[in-house]
Amino acid sequence: MFLAAFIPKQSDEASRDATLVHRLLQRDMRAFEQLYDCHSRLVYGLVFRIVQQAGTAEEIVQDVFLQLWRNAARYDTSRGPFLPWLLTMARNRALDTLRLKSERQRRREDQTEELPAICAAPAFEQQLDDKRRVSQVRDLMASLQPQQKRAIELAYFEGLSHTEIADTLKEPLGTVKSWIRNGLSRLREGLQSAT
Amino acid sequence: MSTTDQFGELLEAYALGALDAPERAALEAHLAAGCAECTQAIAEARWLVSQLAYSAPDAAPSDMLRGRLMQIVRAEAASRRISPTKSPVPFWMWAAVAALLIAAVYSAWDARRLQNQVRDIHNRAVAELANREKIEQELAEVRREATILADPASVKIALATNDPQLAPLQAQWHAALGIVLTGQKIPQPPSNRVLQLWLIPKAPGGKPIPSQVVRPDANGNFVLLVAAPPEQMANTKALAVTEEPTGGSPQPTTTPKWVGAVS
Questions:
Q1: Which chain B positions have a beta carbon within 8 Å of A85's beta carbon?
Q2: Mind listing the pLDDT tens digit for each residue in B56-103?
Q3: Tell me, what DSSP letter sits at residue B190?
Q4: Model confidence over B165-174: pLDDT tens digits?
């Protein structure tokens, strides 16, 4: 009991996701529908932000959820929360699509078969509902210096590397690295202090 | 500064995908070497980076996407349900069972066919045997008739008639082999009537003893063999022939057309 206070409790949402994913492994279509209804807005918002085209975004979201349906067995429910894993997969797909536009010789299939590595929620994590988490993250991002925020967004939503961001912002590479490192630290601390 | 501390500053940038190629390769080599601390830190960094998704502007996919997706998933689930499951029995075993069944059916059919053939052969054999017996019997009768006619011991009996239109009949009686009665150019009686032989006993007041019946052929010829006369020659005074209904009569119903004394 005493120790339990120090062990992060799984939120209702995480517990629900774990149950739904478990049912998904049994090819339960209803579980798939519920997972889609719970997370499709967030996934679509992320993908649309990256590709900036509604049609392309819908294709990517469809691919992501079909991949989930077809390869649910490859998701290890014991190793981490489901939603960050799903978001990582969606982001990777969207960035792959962006890169394909500039590297047409690369075959899309080479990328889409890869599933993201597992995510691990930190000890302080107690998953909030989507609305509260959106508000929290947006507030934290808004609190960053504009250039710091821009550097992180270029990396996250456009998949640029340190050097590419430095070129884009016409800032020294070291400065960009610091902005990103410090910005992510503030984000982590902000999420931690909020719980 | 330990190696882990050295890479610690890169972990979140790595999860973000922002590391340039040289730094990324160095970190991945470090992770590949099995650094559990960095591996765990990377997993947590991925979680942190994933939270940036919440900063994306609100947007919702169309209802059409949901419908399209569910249609695909439903179709895949249905095809999975109706896809044939692999049989636990190997194909060669089914083939062997099928071959055995075919062989069993063929064997049953063949046995039935053979049984029918055997039955047919048996029936034919029985018929042949009956025919042969009949032929042998006829042959024996012919031989018997020939013997009676040729044997000097046979007693010749001429059966005379009062009808000038009729030819006389001839009979030869062998004490051991029987009587042979022959006729030539004898008019056929009506279709419902036959000629019947009678033995007239010597005993006073003795009634005619009925014997066999015969019907001349289209040419008016006949040969009647009485292998076992109903009376001995010694006790018989005469032979007589009457016309009787088909099947014969127990006693004469007409006046004899032919009569011959047994000498």
A1: 50
A2: 999 999 999 999 999 999 888 887 665 555 556 677 777 888 888 888
A3: P
A4: 899 999 999 9
For chain B, which residues score pLDDT lower than 50? 1
- Residue B13, amino acid: A
Q: How many domains does chain A have?
A: 2
Size of interface A-B (CB pairs under 8 A): 160
Nearest residue of A to residue B58, measured between CA atoms: A45
For A103, A140, B49, B144, the CA distances from A96, given in Å and listed in that order, are 10, 27, 17, 120
Q: What are phi and psi of B196, to 5 degrees?
A: -125, 135
- A66–B73 C-beta distance less than 8 A: yes
Q: Taken in order A51, B52, A156, A110, is the CA torsion positive or negative?
A: negative
- Best mutation target among A48, A87, A149, A189 (most B Cβ atoms within 10 Å) is A87
Nearest-Cα distance to chain B for A2, in Å, is 25
Asked if B59 and A134 come within 8 Å (Cβ–Cβ), the reply is no
In the predicted structure, residue A106 carries a pLDDT above the cut 60: no
Return d(Cα A159, Cα B167) in angstroms, integer: 140
Its sign, for the CA torsion B119, B124, B125, B127, is positive
| C-beta atoms surrounding B238 within 10 Å | 18
Q: Residue B190 is part of which domain span?
A: 155-261
Q: Is A41 exposed, middle or buried (0-12, 13-18, 19+ CB in 10 A)?
A: middle
Of B133, B150, B167, the position where a domain reaches its end is B150
The model carries a pTM of: 0.56
DSSP H or E run through B238: strand B236-245
Q: Residue B173 class from Cβ within 10 Å (0-12 exposed, 13-18 middle, 19+ buried)?
A: buried
Q: Which residues of B touch A184 (CB under 8 A)?
A: 12-13, 16, 45, 48-49
Domain count, chain B: 3
Query: What pLDDT is attached to residue A107?
Result: 45
Range of A39's domain? 9-122
B59 vs A48, A80, A91: nearest CB: A48
A170 assigned to some structural domain: yes
